[in-house]
Amino acid sequence: MRFFPDNVKLVREEDxxxxxxxxxxxxxxxxxxxxxxxxxxxxxxEAQRKKNQRHVWVVDGELLRAxxxxxxxxxNKFTEMVSGDLQVGDKLVIGKxx
Length: 98
What we know:
The chain is 23% helix and 27% strand.
């Protein structure tokens, strides 16, 4: 769960926004904080579910493909994958070859 490609050229075009950070923001705006404080229980549960969404990388020909997964329990070495579109035979990338 901790691998992140450092070379955008190794990633499929449609997944490159995950590398360049264009879909990621680290801080919530004040309006987003206010909205979160006024959420219903179901909206809060959905926000928590989205918080647990991550991407893993699988080999797709010569490139890497991002696969969205939902995580569950985590500890130092292991992360439970609750759901995701991984298929039998997918080559999950867990590190870089030297």
